[in-house]
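Model: You mentioned two targets. I'll fold them one after the other.
Researcher: Yes, keep them separate.
Model: Target one:
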Amino acid sequence: MATQENDSTDIEVVLKDLKKIMNSDCSVLKTLLLILSVFFHVEVVVTASDVPNVTIPNAEYSIWSGSAMTLECIIDSIPNHTDVYWQKESHGTVMNITSSSTNVYGATVTKPSLTITHVTTDDEGQYICLAVNIVGTGKSNPTSVKVLGKMFYIFYSDEAY
């Protein structure tokens, strides 16, 4: 029996959410691709979708009351993240912090780090950064913020009056 070869001998295998489909075991995938490669030219395009990987590099911050402070947030996300927000836990209460919250800058898709412009003792607590994509929400490990007492300025002049 003769087979007719056509131009569509290439098979494109697109693997979405590879980690979930293969349960983190790529040996089954490799075996399948090896078998297919015997009969066809196989082109593999891997799109590993997952919740965003969110990192805060510093485990703790100490800052003087009245100062400005930036909590750094690094996000690695495929597919791209579409939202960023922070949560602060203090005395058993969790509060969401977004770009529209007062006294803060950042917490956006393009600038996920959180800057508090005028730190007070109310800002003390545990903070996490969260990023959202179509797969779900990724969150960082917590970072601790300790607010030190108010900074005082003392001016001294040795001029006699």
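Model: Target two:
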Amino acid sequence: MMFGRAEGGRKRGRPVMKLIDSIKEDGKPSVCKAGLGFASMVIVFFCNTYYIMVLAWGFYYLVKSFTATLPWATCGNPWNSPECVEIFRHEDCANGTGTSNLTCNELSDKRSPVIEFWENEVLRLSKGLDFPGAINWEVTLCLLACWILVYFCVWKGVKSTGKALASWLPLPPCSLSPVPEVARDLERGRERKSKLRA
């Protein structure tokens, strides 16, 4: 029986007492169950850290997208390698007709500016674990901003987080509403392009 009657006729909850009793063995905390609690805290810490890092990358891309030309759309940036090619269409190579001056074999050795921005500018990949690279301070500042934002979201507890969620809830549908129209415009552009080729 989970609940019993107390002296005043009120119900007294006993699930917490059962939980405490299950954690203790002979009045002392169980080593195994204490280890499980510690392990679950470590796992939650690493999951939260990873999730905040993903948010920081998204925030970094958001900040970088407020430019006239997107930095990951073109070659010729300081992080691009000589193998960077802006026209990067492998589907044209399937039938052997490439639209650029490169053959399909040459195009397979080239790299997209999107991949080069991610690996060379955002992640700044080094040659290996033996060669630690420099810290990307822009991403570090985005990470700090995300941690501060998360702190203020949970600062006053669940009620303030619910209010913040209610105010931000309409944002994704509003920001995604132009996507079908953009997709239709792209499809119309492809149709016009194929008509001009014919």
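Researcher: Noted. Anything on target two?
Model: The first strand starts at residue 3 and ends at 5.
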